Amino acid sequence: MPLGRLELPLAVSVGDPAGIGPEIIGKAWEARHTSGLAPFFAIGDIGSFAPHWSGPVVRIEDPADTLKHFDSALPVIQLHNCLSVVPGRPDLDGAHCAYQALEMAIGFARAGSAAALVTGPVSKSQLYAVGFTHPGQTEFIAERCGVAKNNAVMMLAGPDLRVVPMTTHIPLADVATTLDARLIRQRLRATAKGLQRNFGIENPRLAVAGFNPHAGEAGNMGREELELFEPAIAQIRAEGINVIGPLPADTMFHAEARAQYDAALCAYHDQALIPLKTLYFHDAVNITLGLPVVRTSPDHGTAFGIAGQNKALPYSMIAAIKMAESAALHRLAAADGS
Ligand SMILES: NC(=O)C1=CN([C@@H]2O[C@H](COP(=O)(O)OP(=O)(O)OC[C@H]3O[C@@H](n4cnc5c(N)ncnc54)[C@H](O)[C@@H]3O)[C@@H](O)[C@H]2O)C=CC1
Ligand SMILES: NCC(=O)COP(=O)(O)O
Asked: Which positions are annotated as binding a divalent metal cation (predicted)?
């Protein structure tokens, strides 16, 4: 059934203004008709666009003014006290702006002034340098929404592959001690629910990657599969969720294997993101499941090395905007029972 259109605009935080955020948002606005994008407004420093992108911008004071201007210029809500930043040269002023834009975008989405939140790329190390204490935007947004961090799930979604890293931005050396049966169960439940709410998949099929080579080879190459994964998966199956695994991680991402599941849950960041970004770097979207608001983001980072050179491709940002609209519409359709 067609999902219709949103009544509210989408809020797009610019991210680090020294990165490619302003350029990909500007280019997404240029593609608004050809890509059929829902109206959106940016949150950032209006002066940070010109060094990256030469299109028209218009300052608005209220998200509700987006529609009046969206056809002729990119609507921007101005941040306070943002100093100019040079593309490709991240500094603390830019990090402060990125932080402020994120905070404001969450506020608009939570207050019901925006239909969803799309976040531009930020540099984690730059944010840490200005006092950001969360591993990433995922955990920060969860906290602002009152959601426990283990119930907010990072999912990266491409055309025929969705992956969930069950642990996110932690040192690899800490993964084995962070993963426990409770976390695995929480991730599985939140992923199943998130696929229903945001993608309209009624009976999601989940697959869990093993932690060790060959999923432990019957306990001979590590015991996490026997001691953690299998009991956690059995419990989740008993709750009626369709889940397979633990599967050998090296053989679960080829095309025929991908067709067997709607999302692959992986033990750690790179186990999930390497297959996804290898296949779909410019098409994939980062979506946070388990939040009361819809949040998406491009899958890539700030790309400081190409900022301000008109080299950034906007496709992941365009996909993030489209997915935000579609997820918001799925939630609305479920809420009114249609
Ligand atoms: N959603 C987010 O906010 C994310 C933020 N990051 C942050 O980004 C920063 C840089 O991370 P990197 O590992 O260098 O990853 P990156 O994604 O910024 O760049 C990796 C490579 O891809 C290229 N690239 C990235 N986006 C592109 C685009 N749209 N068009 C053309 N080329 C593109 C870059 O030039 C670079 O060669 C880090 O500080 C990290 O914290 C990383 C991933 C996601
Ligand atoms: N590698 C994915 C990533 O960095 C996204 O992090 P987040 O800021 O969206 O939590």
From this structure: 169, 214, 269
